[in-house]
Amino acid sequence: MVAHLIPVALLVLAGLAYLTRKRWAPRLARRGLDVRTVPWRWLLVGYPVTAVRMRVTWRQTALIAQLSISRRGNQRVLGGVAVSGTALRQSPPRLGVPRPTRDGLVVRVALHPGQTPRPFLQAAEALAHAWRVYSVRVTSPARGEVVMTVTAQDPLAGDDPSGKRREVPVLTAPVGRLEQGRPWIVSLLMVPHWLVVGTTRSGKSNWINALALALAPQPVALVGVDLKGGLELAPWAARLSALAVTRAETRSVLGALVDELADRMAVCRAAAVRDVWELPDADRPVPIVVLVDEIAELFLTDGSRASKEEATACATALLRIAQLGAALGVHLVVSGQRFGAELGPGATALRAQLAGRVAHRTADSQTAEMALGDLAPDAIDAAQSITTEEQGVAITTDGGVWMRARSTLVTTEAARQTATDTAGLRQELPRVTAVLAPALDLDKEGGA
Ligand SMILES: Nc1ncnc2c1ncn2[C@@H]1O[C@H](COP(=O)(O)OP(=O)(O)OP(=O)(O)O)[C@@H](O)[C@H]1O
């Protein structure tokens, strides 16, 4: 009983803290804690209302969502049929005291003997409706209990309040925010290669732009492969070490990168180290991030021998880069509307190497399965339930669990401006520019 007074006590404390904040806030601010970031509205109004609503509706909600069990004592069994004149008494599992978080609350539920977490997983949506919250995520960290993490409002809606630039280690990129409100940090050091899928206008190019925005100020070479005629990556031209816009150019660029891998392997061998990160700073070659916008264009052929050969060469080079690149500082970020078996066996092999996954709204279950199937089946459903209005929202993985996230919106102007501002950091990749130069010269001659 005393436990149920805890939310009331928390509410009173939060109310007092809010009313007296002018007295103590400056002292905390001097120690680096800014109380303006405290979600007062949620703590003072949203949380208590939700906690009371949960408590009041729990018995009925648990009954309707089939989370209650009936006590045997109330049954009268005659010939195997319960014939008691009184209704069977249903007993809901014990709901703990909700603990407030920045954007919702967390509550533990003690399971009845014989109950499993599965019905709670299935009831998550019903509970979110009953409690009028954005989402309820159910986990079972210990036997005999489930933990429900309630998110009050869609944290991915509206502007990103943490949109300001921050200092990050090399190859680490804040690309947006996760549904818990934390920054969405992509680390190419931890997960070297990424696959980004989504139907048209779902936000794939924006995600690549958000990644490029974060990597552009770092000592990293960016190489673009944009078979949509270079339209998507054109704003980054000033910062890119190379931009391939046709499949022939892509074949040459990827071939040159495979040669670059061989060079780096020789350097590592000579220094008797296992990867470029073990080389002394002065000898370490610059990391290369290859951004591929629309992978399907690379794999699909018109049936002619030449085009089949070109596609196979690109697929083989991509696979080689994916297999060897992590140790040699060459990273792949591949995006595509569809990523299924119809792209050929090369696609499945490549997918296995692209451990980082970002799935925006997908039109077909095969693409969602390709991107998330090896993570969790409910992640596939989550990717398919992203609505057309939720552009930039995606399912991704973080520490082995999947979650919703939204990339930071990057305008063309911001991309162009950042590329211009960081053009001085553009890295020379002689092998790659050498193979593109003849093609560019031919263009010029043709145009003259
Ligand atoms: N994170 C985001 N927040 C808000 N709006 C976004 C976000 N990401 C994308 N959008 C909007 O969605 C539109 C489409 O995004 P984008 O071009 O990245 O999609 P795409 O998946 O690459 O599409 P396509 O495959 O047709 O090129 C953008 O013009 C932008 O207005």
Automatic annotation (TrEMBL):
Keyword Transferase assigned: no
All copies of domain FtsK, residue ranges: 181-369
Any Gene Ontology biological process: cell division
Residues of the signal peptide: none
InterPro entries: FtsK/SpoIIIE/SftA, FtsK_dom, P-loop_NTPase
Keywords: ATP-binding, Cell cycle, Cell division, Nucleotide-binding
UniProt cross-references to Gene3D superfamilies, sorted A to Z: P-loop containing nucleotide triphosphate hydrolases
Positions with a binding annotation for ATP: G198, T199, T200, R201, S202, G203, K204, S205
A Pfam family of this chain: FtsK_SpoIIIE
CDD domains linked to this entry: TrwB_TraG_TraD_VirD4
Full protein name: Cell division protein FtsK
